[in-house]
Amino acid sequence: MMQAMSDASPHPSSTGRRERVLSGAQPTADSYHLGNYFGAFRQWVALQDDFEAFYFIPDLHAITVEYDPAQLRERTYIAAAQLLAAGVDPARSALFVQSHVPEHAQLAWVLGGITGFGEASRMTQFKDKSAKGGQDASSVGLFTYPILMAADILVYQADKVPVGEDQRQHVELTRNLAQRFNHRFGETFTVPQAHIVKATAKIYDLQDPTAKMSGSNPSHAGVVDLDDTAKQAAKKIRSAMTDSGTEIRFDRESKPGISNLLSIYAALTDRTIESLETEYADKQYGHLKVDLGELVGDFVQSFGDRTRALLDDRAELDRVLAAGAERAREVAAETLAAVYDRSGFVAPR
Ligand code: TRP
């Protein structure tokens, strides 16, 4: 076996370490939103208890579309502060900025060598994102984005990758690349699994409750940003599009608007949908909206307070991110060394 010939470290999943979880959320807006919080960050925070966790801000991914450098820098800080405000605990998890760990880009190059052009061309997110301006106007970086994402995951030997449904295909590619490399060059990578969040944690746009809440939605009337004021957030909830009829009941098919509000309510209060249906059985849509508006308002208010306090001390944020990157690099450097060795690169001596 090739592995036996190599002096680089063996496949880590056989070493009995704690399972690893890894995820990232692009800093492509001035704030994350409620959908990110319930659909992703809450899971990340919960997973810290049982996994060795790596959470990062993919700034390298953010430059694959047109962007403004000063804005990216500020958004990266905001992203870090919001992840901390959401409960990512730097004492337990490595929280870091992707560009602080050069091994991501280094591994991406190696993986590019075993990725088929046709395989990369089949990524539906690239097709969607490039459809807007046409493929000729898209960057090569946007095209190779999934390969960098594979490197993000594989460089930490991650076992589990919590992502939304839209990222499933990228994790599938990651699995294929890991298996291909292992097969050709010897056991090197853990083959990761996507951890797709539960449908009930999924939050939809308040104005179009059939589309997921997304920062790239043209209007933010349907998106509660985590930096909204209590007033703004409450108003968005009260103005949410609701369905015909009057009954407050969870039914995604015929009542997407009310169902979305019930999901948010349940997520925010840790209550069940059933108990909310019972409580609101004799009430009107308006009651639900006013109550939920207040709850969401209070939530963004305290979330915003915590975020602002963190952003007021950049030196401390820098320290947290540096410690996260240092921890991340320990793991990433070990994987990259094994990859380079197995790839046949002469070690610099
Ligand atoms: N592509 C992911 C998204 O847009 C972000 C991301 C980059 C990511 N690298 C990752 C997610 C690695 C999980 C693991 O949401």
Ligands: tryptophan
Portion in helices: 40-55%
Question: Stretches where pLDDT falls below 50 for ≥5 residues?
Answer: 1-11
What is the first-to-last residue Cα distance? 26 Å
Structure summary, number of beta strands: 5
Report the principal-axis shape: globular
Which structural category fits the helices and strands?
mainly alpha
Main β sheet profile? 3 strands, parallel
> What's the multimeric state?
single chain
Mean pLDDT: 93
Q: Give me the number of helical elements.
A: 14
Strand percent estimate? 5-15%
Across the major sheet, the strand order is 1-2-3
Indicate the radius of gyration in whole angstroms.
22 Å
**Series of H and E elements:** HEHEHHEHHHHEHEHHHHH
Topology:
Blueprint: H1 2-5, E1 20-24, H2 34-47, E2 52-57, H3 59-62, H4 69-86, E3 93-97, H5 103-112, H6 117-121, H7 124-133, H8 140-154, E4 160-163, H9 168-185, E5 193-196, H10 230-238, H11 256-269, H12 273-279, H13 285-311, H14 314-343
Parallel strand pairs: 1-2, 2-3, 4-5
Describe, in plain words, how this protein is organized in 3D.
By secondary structure, the protein is mainly alpha-helical. Helix content is 53%, strand content 7%. It contains 14 helices and five strands. It has helices at 2-5, 34-47, 59-62, 69-86, 103-112, 117-121, 124-133, 140-154, 168-185, 230-238, 256-269, 273-279, 285-311, 314-343, and strands at 20-24, 52-57, 93-97, 160-163, 193-196. The strands form two sheets. Strands 1-2-3 form a three-stranded parallel β-sheet. Strands 4-5 form a two-stranded parallel sheet. Helix 2 links the parallel strand 1 (20-24) and strand 2 (52-57). Helix 4 (69-86) crosses helix 13 (285-311), helix 8 crosses helix 9 (168-185) and helix 10 (230-238) packs antiparallel against helix 13 (285-311). The longest helix is centred in the last third of the chain and has 30 residues, at 314-343. The chain is globular, with a radius of gyration of 22 Å. The two termini are 26 Å apart. The structure holds tryptophan (TRP). Tryptophan is lined by residues 22-26, 58, 61, 149, 152-153, 161, 163, 167.
